[in-house]
Amino acid sequence: MRPKKVRKLLAEALKxxxxxxxxxxLDDSGFTDGFIxxxxxxxxxxxxxxDGVYLDSLLMMRVRDxxxxxxxxxxxxxxxxxxxxxxxxxxxxxxxxxxxDLVVASADLHPLSAFALGDEGEExxxxxxxxxxxxxxxxxxxxxxxxxxxxDVDRWRYEQIxxxxxxxxxxxxxxxxGDPYPGDGPVAAxxxxx
Length: 194
Hints:
It contains 4 helices and 10 strands; from the N terminus they run αβββββααβββββα. By secondary structure, the chain is α+β, with helices and mostly antiparallel strands. It folds into 2 domains: 3-84, SH3 type barrels; 99-192, SH3 type barrels, CATH 2.30.30.
């Protein structure tokens, strides 16, 4: 699908408040379903539907990585969300939001920072604590899948980040049951480089 068509279909899903199914070039696992809740010049924000009708994490993806978008909505989803008492999240960001802006915004909304690094057609999810958001790089303290903290802080260039995740069952479980953060408590706002 051409990039112009992808953008058009994302904008239509946002306006109509309908579920979109998207495929990304970097994602070998198939498609992602969810409500498009924000669209900037470079990024799209989706409230992900898991197991068909359960709203889970917010997922920010680079628009350039999306290869296909189709309408994935039907009345069952609306009825199930109403019946389960779930509502689609709101997330606003400026049209010209940078990757840095989105990384900082996500860290403000959840104690764990999660972003994926695109590498040779695959993504590697990095979950942890945002330590610093510099001009060109993000410093991140990695939390392993077994809930233990890495010894050192890593840094990544913003252009390496292909998606950003906020919340969801996986991050909630790590935040609640993983080891306590080894630092001196929560990271103070000035360290985030704002």
